[in-house]
Amino acid sequence: MSNGGGSYNAQNDSRAGSTGEPDMGTEPTGGFFSADYKKHDDLKQMLDSNKDNLKLEAMKRIVGMVAKGKDASDLFAAVVKNVVSKNIEVKKLVYVYLVRYAEEQQDLALLSIATFQRALKDPNQLIRASALRVLSSIRVPVIVPIMMLALKDSVVDMSPYVRKTAAHAIPKLYSLDPEQKDQLIQVIEKLLADKTTLVVGSAVMAFEELCPDRVDLIHKNYRKLCNLLVDVEEWGQVVIINMLTRYARTQFLDPNQQDVVADDDKNFYGDEDEKDSEEEEEDEEKEKTPPKKPYMMDPDHRLLLRNTKPLLQSRNAAVVMAVAQLYHHIAPKSEVGLVAKALVRLLRSHREIQHVVLSNVATLTTIRKVRGMFEPYLKSFFVRPSDPIHVRTLKLEILTNLATETSISTILREFQTYVTSSDKDFVAATIQAIGRCASSISEVTETCLNGLVGLLSNRNEYVVAESVVVIKKLLQMQPDSHSEIIQHMAKLADTITVPMARASILWMVGEYSDRVPKIAPDLLRKMAKNFINEEDIVKLQILNLAAKLCITNPKQTKLLCQYVLNLAKYDQNYDIRDRARFIRQLVSPAGEKGALGKHAKKIFLASKPAPVLDSSFKDRDQWQLGSLSHMINQRASGYSPLPDFPATAPDPTVRNVEVPMPWAEKTHKKKAGKPKKEAFYSDEEEESESESDSEESSSSSSESGSESESEDDSKSESGSDKEEKKSDEEAESSSSSSSESESSSESDSDSDSESEPDTKPQKKTPPPKSKSSAKPKKEAKQEVSLLDLEDIDMSSTSAPVPTPASALDVLSPSLASDLQGLSINDKKDTAISVTTPMFVSTTSHELLHRMTGEGLAANYRFTRGTCIYSTSMVPVELTFTNHTDSPVSNIRIGEKKLQAGMTLQEFPEIPTLPGGGSMSVSIGIDFKDTIQPANFQICTQDRKYNVSIKPPVGELLQAVTMSEADFTAQQSKLTGMNENSGKASIPSQHNNSKTITSRISELANVAPVFSSQDGLYRFAGKTVSGGTLLLVTVKVGEDNSASITVNCEKMAICSMLVKEVKQKLSQA
Amino acid sequence: MIHSLFMINSAGDIFMEKHWKSVISRSVCDYFFEEQQKANSPEDVNPVISTPHHYLIHIYRENIYFVAVCTTEVPPLFVIEFLHRVVDTFTDYFGDGGETAIKDNYVIVYELLEEMLDNGFPLATESNILKELIKPPNILRTVVNTVTGSSNLADTLPTGQLSNVPWRRAGVKYTNNEAYFDVIEEIDAIIDKQGSTVFADIQGVIDCCVKLSGMPDLTLSFMNPRILDDVSFHPCVRFKRWESERVLSFVPPDGNFRLISYHVGSQNMVAIPVYVKPNISFREGGGRFDVTVGPKQTMGKLVESVVITCAMPKVVLNMNLTPTQGTYTFDPVAKVLTWDVGKINPQKLPNLRGNISLQSGSPPPESNPAISVQFKIQQMAVSGLKVNRLDMYGEKYKPFKGVKYLTKAGNFQVRT
């Protein structure tokens, strides 16, 4: 690097004396390099040499030229050769150069394409990604087909990083050739379905650039996006939130539709707790509009609001703003108040951020309904002398908007200090703000007016001038009984020089000349004397004054008026000449009294409507908050206005996904917990609910019980707990909904089967007291693994298909090492090692009967070994037998219908199985530690058979050995919810250590642990997929009764195993 | 999104440009210069400028304008926040983000910009990841690279990029495992002439320097977490646990980072640790200046590094003052009086008094200048926030832990 820096400085020195190009900065700080042609020869030579450091040196200098904006295009041929360089830094710099100039030298650029195509196949994901990046960035239309191919390959790449790059390539390709749009949309569709947080942000970005109106692509991914949102990188969050705002506007009903009625009562949202106010609101709505069907928020709408709320805490201002606009545009008014605090926090940030945030706040404060939310933060908008001018003006604007009867005194006191500022523009703005406060709050008009009159004697002319203008506007609103002010101002006309102020005074004296009958003609006289020296705007007002006085007081002013009109007749400005001609016709027609003359008084002295002093931000809320268009108050290219909420909600079922998603289950579970609540809202609902009530009431009570328990213990829990917690929250915050029930009743059954085992053990757990005592110990060691697991769980619960991590685990161990952050194996305890199983069952289960299989039969057997494909898979041996005479060919696994997270590694295809022959193959299934069956198809050449493998719980385990001390230590950590126990009586003939050990080993793949105590049997294993420890203890008492204890974090497995052990042991 | 970036120094020279899409002529900056000319100070330039075909969004930092050019609708904060992140990265890499640093390291700067944005959309902005992709320059590495011919660029993807903890790199090793936490609170206040508080609130941050091996999982708990009114977190903090238990649980990034920033509401009474008794008067041709500083509610702690600055009106020619303590300077060009007081001794209150001379002939200013105060109080968090304990899970070693408290003045302004 010092080489580069050094030479760069040398360059500067050498060129300091030479003359630089005129347009490029030639200041001492200027130019990296001059575009000297001799230098280029030099560079070419360096690039042609075979020494890497010379090439690097040359490339650094060339990049310097590119950076400076100097033309380096004539080096293209020399540079592009080096795209094959082995040195990665040279290569990178060549890429930089290529991207910059390829467009200009398309033919030569094509030379490099082959290199990229090769790199796209590189095993290193970084190289693949950067090849795709450069390839898609070089903007040469000829290669569009190549890019398209590369893109399609990369979208299914197993590295999420490459897929992310592919998402970025889509808009590039589109801008190069818009004809490809349809194909690209297909690609986007694939990417949107991606479950990796790294990819979705970029995928949505591509979606927004290409086809923001294709909401149909979002439906299926909506819930996934909502759920992944928190984990997406911050830039992706902004894009996704903006997109979801638009989506919500098209798919959900307006949550504020009933506010129209219940409007007036809602001016106190402020700090209120979200849920309280929400419930209140709903109550309120119910009271007010009984005949109307109450509004029920779509659960998906609620999901979005809930999942974006934590992002208000983001450190990234753009994310906070995005959430704020989302709440502003789609949340019920009562909840929008949440965002105020976060927005105010942003005011501590850089001044540019302040500026943008303040202008958005300014818009918000013009809307009466949401203004209240900023009132508690009034003082945060006080101006500091260090604020830049645009920030100050915005703060003034906000303070003015926020002024109410209660806060006005504070604000006015604050304004008084601003008026003394040395910045004239700011003082002027303050005075205008005072004027606006005075006009909007009638209580203080008088005070303000007095204050402003006080300012008239200020020494600063700008202050006076601005006050005059503002007073004029105020007086116009209530002209009665202010003649002394008018007098005072008329006197000012002698001294004040600011044209606008002079004009204002003249207008006012003319308008209210009847109140100052003596002064007005005198003023006109003075003005007439100085007419030719005045500014145009003042001249026009002098004409006006003359005309008005001439009408009201012709005796004294007729001549003066004539004089002024004559002066104006020869003025340089045509406006003034026009005005003079026009007035002359009205007030002193040459001949007989014209028709117009009769109405002159009406025309000139008609009562004029008072001006309305409005915020300049008043109409800004037509733009989407936080957008560029809002900022510049004009439509930026590419801006699409937010659609209005639909009158009737589109079909909510489009968002349902076939695979029962974990989050879908959650919503239903929660629903079961709160049926009562729903019934409370409307009668129709009650009917539909009542049937389900009876069924669910039993489960709901027990469930809600377990929920509250799980909250106590939340940290020691992993995945299942997380679900609980979520559902818990949901139950609290969501204001219940009935619409979802019919939409997803099919998936309910699935969810039940999964969630049941989860909840049961919780019910059995000892009271929370003992848990809390055990907690500190538990946390001590296990905390990290559990929390890690939580992270992993996040991705696996929210991603129904294999996460990239597990996919990579399977496919290439080398890549797996790249993913240590995710690695599950990290948390294995060293003292515990996997051992060979005690017992391997020889009985096999039927997978495909020979009748159904038309002669082909298949059996499966759990081999209890270590799976050759992946450590997280359960090895299963499949045996195919051909009962027919003719050979069966091409036996393979076809379509897999696996539960979320499960993976299945298939066997290599069996080309032929001769008649009567049989063959064994092994497959690996990652059951993700559930007993959900793995459904898949076995295909032969011409037939397909649906089969399923349901693992017994004992087969989900892997035997491990450990010392007794370790065992007890581990067991003490797995107490509370993670412990499950039961009693069984063992038939006396079987009450011996051999039988018990063999029976348990038969049942589950666990290994016995040495026990120093008689009658106490211990076994240890771990779950294959998650690697969580499972401990079995059987304690046999005197009377042949045995107490069985199973400790494992996976509570479902725990409880099932207890049951099975109980049965097995009590077998005769 | 972001189409191009121009860096413009205070002399108006465009010294670096980078285009992520097609090339945009630098003449687009003329619109910016036009705007800049209208402004009185560099800070006053409107950050968002609309031109017929482009939108210019800029930030001003380290005396450089970073002007981003956009062609379509984009959230302005998105661009601004990103630009700040770019400058932060430069500062992180080169020690300062100024013009000299950028020019000296232009190749790295260019590589960084290339890596941070792809097609105008942010790609990798996490400093830990960038540092693995592009090694920051240091002398040792330069020497090694010249000798061995190795490069500053990594040839494999940083592990963090793909993991669930993108902010932390893998395989961190330290011989001394240590974690330091600085609780820094700033008091923003406006005090009026009578000494009563117009507005005061407390903004705090917890800056960390964590040098721990492996993948530690830390839990930081407070004695009184409820006083935190509003918080924003580093992405590593688990939000759920904060919501439910009010503890900070996180896998920390490696090195220095800001864990949370928080706000203590103005509803709570803020203890103002110092008072300033100003007595400034102007008359024709001159005036008197008399300022005394004293401790107020300091909970027995020493107030140090007190500096008082006062931007005098333009008509002030010179000031002739005598401090009882510390030194004072008056910049006759900028008209700024700076009084470096140092520590406040409660027995003998520091005082600065003397005469002001005004331009002859010009009327005395009618308003008194505002005084801004800076101070530091060690070992005290003015909000009363206290760290209860720090637990580490997931690693076997015992880390060295330390917490430091510091209160300082933020935007502390006294009206006179």
Automatic annotation (TrEMBL), chain A:
Q: Which GO terms describe its biological process?
A: intracellular protein transport; vesicle-mediated transport
Q: State the compartments where it is located.
A: Cytoplasmic vesicle, Clathrin-coated vesicle membrane; Golgi apparatus
> Per its database record, what is this protein's job?
Subunit of non-clathrin- and clathrin-associated adaptor protein complex 3 (AP-3) that plays a role in protein sorting in the late-Golgi/trans-Golgi network (TGN) and/or endosomes. The AP complexes mediate both the recruitment of clathrin to membranes and the recognition of sorting signals within the cytosolic tails of transmembrane cargo molecules. AP-3 appears to be involved in the sorting of a subset of transmembrane proteins targeted to lysosomes and lysosome-related organelles.
Where is it mostly found?
membrane
Its protein name is: AP-3 complex subunit beta
InterPro entries, per database record: AP3_beta, AP3B1/2_C, AP3B_C, AP_beta, ARM-like, ARM-type_fold, Clathrin/coatomer_adapt-like_N
Q: Where is the composition biased (Acidic residues)?
A: 270-285, 681-696, 743-756
Q: Where is this region: Disordered?
A: 1-31, 261-299, 659-783
Q: Which organism is it from?
A: Branchiostoma belcheri
Q: Where is the AP-3 complex subunit beta C-terminal domain?
A: 779-932
Q: How does it sit in the membrane?
A: Peripheral membrane protein
Where composition is biased (Polar residues), the residues are: 8-17
Q: Which UniProt keywords apply?
A: Cytoplasmic vesicle, Golgi apparatus, Membrane, Phosphoprotein, Protein transport, Transport
Query: Which residue ranges traverse the bilayer?
Result: none
The family line of this record is:
Belongs to the adaptor complexes large subunit family.
Q: Known SUPFAM superfamilies for this protein?
A: ARM repeat
A single GO cellular-component term from the record reads: AP-3 adaptor complex
Q: Where is the composition biased (Low complexity)?
A: 733-742
Q: Give the compositionally biased regions (Basic and acidic residues).
A: 713-728
Keyword flag Cytoplasm: no
Q: Does the keyword Transport apply?
A: yes
UniProtKB/TrEMBL annotation, chain B:
**PROSITE patterns (alphabetical):** CLAT_ADAPTOR_M_1, MHD
List the PANTHER family.
AP COMPLEX SUBUNIT MU (PTHR10529)
This entry carries the following GO cellular component terms, namely: clathrin adaptor complex; cytoplasmic vesicle membrane; Golgi apparatus
The membrane topology noted for this protein in its Swiss-Prot or TrEMBL record is: Peripheral membrane protein
Q: Which is an annotated Pfam family here? A: Adap_comp_sub
Where, subcellularly, is it found?
A: Cytoplasmic vesicle membrane; Golgi apparatus
**Which keywords does UniProt give here?**
Cytoplasmic vesicle, Golgi apparatus, Membrane, Protein transport, Transport
Q: Which SUPFAM superfamilies match?
A: Second domain of Mu2 adaptin subunit (ap50) of ap2 adaptor, SNARE-like
> Under which name does UniProt file this protein?
AP-3 complex subunit mu-1-like isoform X2
Residues in domain MHD? 176-415
InterPro entries, alphabetically?
Answer: Adaptor_comp_med_subunit, AP2_Mu_C_sf, AP_mu_sigma_su, Clathrin_mu, Clathrin_mu_CS, Longin-like_dom_sf, MHD
Listed GO biological process terms: intracellular protein transport; vesicle-mediated transport
Q: Which family does it belong to?
A: Belongs to the adaptor complexes medium subunit family.
